[in-house]
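Today's session is about reading a structure prediction critically. Students often jump straight to the picture, but the first step is always the sequence itself: look for stretches that repeat, for charged clusters, for runs of hydrophobic residues. Only then move on to the predicted structure, which in these notes is written as discrete structure tokens rather than atom positions. Here is the chain we will use throughout the hour.
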Amino acid sequence: MARIKVVNEASDLVGLMTAVDSPVKRDVFLALSAGWESERTIESRFGLMGRAALNLLDKQDMLDSRWEPTAEGPNKMFHARYSSFKIDTTAPMAELSEVFAVAVMPGPEFKEKEEALTQMALGSGVNVMDAAVRLALSQTMVRAIAKRSQRLDLRGLRVVTNGVPDRQVKAAASGLVGP
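Below is the predicted structure for this chain, in token form.
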């Protein structure tokens, strides 16, 4: 069954762009588009970078998962949820430029902004508007940072931490977070 992901908010473009911005992430996505794969299989084919890519794709809500019984016990399998993407958004150029700026932001600069936002979101999270004022950024940029981050999620108008262990984030930062 072919599913189409409709992107109708500019900040959703960050997730799409960063989900395939490295050869490993692109290869993992293509492998998952071809069929169901286990986390173990992805890690054996692509290494720790493949596992980090799998976690990022799962966070970006681009994967379906199911449990399958095996001789070693239950095994979680993954498959690409979408076979096509339809980008249907209208946004001011200023907003689009902020979204693209976050998508291609160098790793160290992104990490600095992500860390500041993560500190604010610890506990019960932080409102997007409050975070934007405190960080002197636009709400669009705050949303884009949360979409790109492996440690943050958006829940309505709140930025919350998602509980991804720092070791996975560090593995991803070594080559999957962008240039």
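Discussion point for the tutorial: The chain has a mean pLDDT of 86.
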